[in-house]
Amino acid sequence: MDCRVGCAACCIVVSISSPIPGMPHGKPAGVRCSQLSDENTCNLFGKPERPAVCSSLKASVEMCGRSNEEAFALLSDLEQATRP
User: Fold this and answer.
1) Is residue 2 one of the residues assigned to a domain?
2) CB atoms near residue 33 (< 10 Å)
3) Looking at the domain assignment, is residue 1 inside a domain?
4) SS (H, E, C) the chain
5) How confident is the model at residue 75 (pLDDT cuts 50, 70, 90)?
6) 54 lies in a domain?
7) Does the pLDDT of residue 84 top 80, yes or no?
8) With 80 as the cut, is the pLDDT of residue 25 above it?
9) Name one Pfam family in it (predicted).
10) pLDDT digits (tens, 9 = 90+) for 26-52
11) Which domain holds residue 52?
């Protein structure tokens, strides 16, 4: 499965604990990443500044569902389940 261009659920819904350019303390869950373009594409894609956690995410039906709305719901549930 490939990412749906413009979805950006993983760049908004999930928390990222590692620094991101423009977000030195990481990104809280539910906050839009500072590196998302207006078209919801990653400005760091393919660059060394992109956090390893972002590069390691792979699109899957279990994570992304079959629509953007489903991706937001699935990732919200996952974020809630993995909170300390």
Assistant:
1) no
2) 22
3) no
4) CCCCCCCCHHHHCCCECCCECCECCCECCCCCCCCECCCCCECCCCCCCCCHHHHHCCCCHHHHCCCHHHHHHHHHHHHHHCCC
5) very high
6) yes
7) no
8) yes
9) CxxCxxCC
10) 999 999 999 999 999 999 999 999 999
11) 9-81
Residue with token string 């373009």: 37
Residue 83: per-residue pLDDT: 82
Residue 1 CA to residue 35 CA, distance in Å, equals 23
What type of residue sits at position 43? N
Query: At residue 77, what is the residue type?
Result: D
Q: Is residue 23 part of a domain?
A: yes
Please give the angle made by the CA atoms of 21, 63 and 43, to the nearest 5 degrees: 25
pTM of the model: 0.89
Token representation of residue 57: 């995410």
